[in-house]
Amino acid sequence: MVRLLRGGVAGLGLVAAGPALAHHPMGGETPQTLVQGLLSGLAHPVIGPDHLAFVIGVGVLSAFVPRGWILPAIFLIAGAFGATLHLGGLGLPAGETLVAVSVLLMAAAVYLRDRGPLAMFAGLCGAGGLVHGYALAESIIGAEASPLVAYFAGLVAVQFALSLGVREAVRRVSDARPLVAGRAALAASIAILAVGVALLPVWPA
């Protein structure tokens, strides 16, 4: 379990070298069927390094915070709201930059872990969920109702399973070997930080 956890957080650093934008499995085209929508929703948060880093951060953070189970719930609810805003045609200025900044802030939150207030972490998960949900809705713009519903079902399912799975893994390690869990969380914060830095837009001189 410890090796798996270490390998997972180390892998985030490698993922940071990949593309900044998430590519869904439909080759960049809008899903046309229920199955395509579901597959796109399941894959999108996993193959996008920014979204993957943030979701893993939510899971790690929630393992150390009292009543931390509320953080994944806040993230998912805010994500649904952000996606709704995008589908409704409301713009979000500097969306890519906000996503990258949210990843950087998540790295800081994981570093702080139990040394910060729940309200601050909840606010981060809410704000992060909003911008990530908005970004994730981009690939489904223009889809019919069936693939649209399937996409969001897959999206919620994979993010819920991943964040709670990471939370449970970290909690088990923490119960058995708290020092190891603390080091793994530090490694996770560094890996998430690397992703955020790698995905920051390059500003013109």
Describe the structure.
With 205 residues, this protein is an all-alpha fold. The chain has one domain. It has eight helices and no strands. Helix 5 runs antiparallel to helix 6. It is globular, with a radius of gyration of 16 Å.
Query: How many strand elements?
Result: 0
Number of helices: 8
Unreliable stretches, pLDDT < 50, 5 or more residues?
Answer: 1-23
- Sketch the major β-sheet: none
Domain unit count: 1
Mean pLDDT over all positions:
84
Structural Rg:
16 Å
Distance between the termini: 46 Å
Helix fraction bin = over 70%
Structural class: mainly alpha
Proportion of residues in β-strands: under 5%
H/E topology pattern: HHHHHHHH
- The global form is globular
What characteristics describe this protein?
disordered N terminus; mainly alpha; 205 residues
Task: Summarize it.
With 205 residues, this protein is mainly α. 75% of the residues lie in helices and 0% in strands. It starts with a helix and ends in a 6-residue tail after the last helix.
